[in-house]
Amino acid sequence: MTNLKIAIIGAGPAGCMLARLLHLANIAATVYESESSPDFRSQGGSLDLHTNTGLAALKEAGLFDEFLKHARYDGQYMAIVDKNNKPHFVRTAEGWGSGVQERPEIDRPKLREILADSLPKGMIKWGHRLKSVGEDGTLNFEHTSAAGFDLVIGADGAWSKVRQLLAPEVKPSWTKIGLYSLSIPNATETAPELSKLVNRGNLFANSYEQRITVQQMGDESLSVYAAVVSEEEKWSSPEVCGYDSHDIDAVKKRLLELYKDWSPELTDAIVKAEGECTPRSLYMLPVGFKWLHRRGFTVIGDAAHLMTPYAGEGVNVALEDAMHLAKAIISAATEGGGPDILDRKVEAFEKEMFPRMEKVQRLTEELMHDNMFTPGSPQTTIARSVARHAKFETPWVFHPLVTASVHTFFFMRKLLP
Predict the structure, then answer these.
(1) Superfamily of the domain at 6-41+108-171+286-369
(2) How far apart are CA 413 and CA 316, in angstroms?
(3) Which is nearest to 147 in space by CA: 162, 155, 136?
(4) Coil, helix or strand at residue 278
(5) Domain boundaries in the chain?
(6) Pair 296, 137: CB distance under 8 Å
(7) CATH 3.30.9.30 is right for the domain spanning 173-284
(8) Where does the FAD-binding domain lie (predicted)?
(9) For 378-387, how does the pLDDT look when each residue is reduced to its tens digit (9 = 90+)?
C-alpha cells in the first residue's frame, strides 16, 4: 500500500470521522483545526443520528459502542405543535421501531468529543487557522504553512477556504432566519412543565415566521432555539436590533415581545432560560451546488452542501460523506496509491455525492419554507411536510402511494372529534 499524505481542514464531525477511518486503514492524515484547544462545552444542541448514515459511519469507525454509552434512545420522542401548544404530529420514542430506522439522540459536543478522542494524540493540529489555500495545495495558516499533500480535504464548514479555491464565485446565502440559542439548566426542577412537554426528546413549535425548538440534553438541561426572521443579514448587531444580542435579559425581553401571542406553556422556554445567549445566523449553499473537479482537492460536510437544520440531516450526511470518501481513498491506496488513481477515486466520490446531496438539500429547503415561510404553519403544512420526509426515506416508485396515504391520514384525523 503506497503511503499517501492527506490534509483534512476542520476537526468537526466530518473531519474527525474521515481521519478516524483513514487511521484505521493505516493511511496518514493530519487534521488542522482553528480552535486553539479541545473545547466541546458550548457547541450546539442535540443531534439525532440515522440508521443508514450517521449510525452506519460510527459502526464503520468502530465507535458505536462508545456512542451507546451516551446515546438517548428515549430522546427519539418528537412533537410538532402550533403556537397554542396544540399537537399536530407526535412520534413516540417507541414509534421509530427496533433498529430498522432508529434515530437516537446525542449531544453535539459529546459526539465531537467521541470522534476527536478516537484519534491518536497529535493527529489534530489545534490552533491552525487557515487563511488561504494555494493553487499548488499549500496551506497558509496565520502563523505557519504546510505543503506536499496528495489530497487536501475541506471539512471546514460554511465559510470553507478549500471550497473558495474550488468555486470562488459561490458563497452561502442568507436565509433571513436567525436563531437565539438559549439554555435551561436542571430543567426538571427549574421548568418541570416544559420538561414534561419535551418528554426527553424534541419539541418543535411553529407559526408563520416564528419557531421555538426545545431539546433535551444529556446533562438534564434543555437547549432552546428561538427564531427571528429579518431582512437584515446583520440582524443581531446592536445597530440593527437595538440591544446587545449576547445579553440574555435584553434578548428574553425582545423574544417575549415577538412571541407575545404564544401559549405561556411554550414561552416558558424563553422565561426560564439562564446563562449564555448566542445569536446564530442560518445560511445555505444553492440546492444542487457542484464544482468542477480539481486534482488534489475536495470538500465534504457543510463545506460541500451547507443546509439549514429543518430536515435534521446535516451531521448525518456529513458523516456519510466521510465514510464514502474514506472508502475512495483507501481503495486508491490499495491499488497502488498513485496520483492518477487517487484522482479518479476522488472524482468518482464527488460524482456520487452530488445527486445524493441534492436530494437532501432539496428536502431541507422545502421543509424550511414549510416551517418558516408558509402562512398557517403547521396546520397548513404538516401533511405535506410529513409526506416529504416519508418520500425521502422510500424509493420513488412508492412516492404517489406515500403521498396519498399521508394526506389521507391527516384528512381523516381532522374529521375525528
Answers:
(1) FAD/NAD(P)-binding domain (3.50.50.60)
(2) 32
(3) 136
(4) strand
(5) 6-41+108-171+286-369, 173-284, 381-415
(6) yes
(7) yes
(8) 5-344
(9) 999 999 999 9
Extract the C-alpha cell encoding 10.
Answer: 476542520
As a whole number of angstroms, the distance between CA 161 and CA 156 comes to: 7
Residue 75 · residue 166 · CB < 8 Å: no
Q: Which residues contact 200 (CB under 8 A, 6 or more apart)?
A: 72, 74, 75, 77, 93, 216
| CB-based contact 308:177 (threshold 8 Å) | yes
d(CA 4, CA 43): 32
Q: How many residues does the chain have?
A: 417
User: Model pTM?
Assistant: 0.94
- Cα separation, 45 vs 221, in Å, equals 10
Identity of the amino acid at 80: I
Residue recorded with cell 487511521: 23
Which amino acid, 59? K
Cα 223 from Cα 185, distance rounded (Å): 9
- Model pLDDT for residues 195-238, shown as the tens digit of each residue: 999 999 999 999 999 999 999 999 999 999 999 999 999 999 99
Beta-carbon contacts of 371 under 8 Å, excluding residues fewer than 6 positions away, are 204, 206, 211, 310, 377, 378, 381, 385
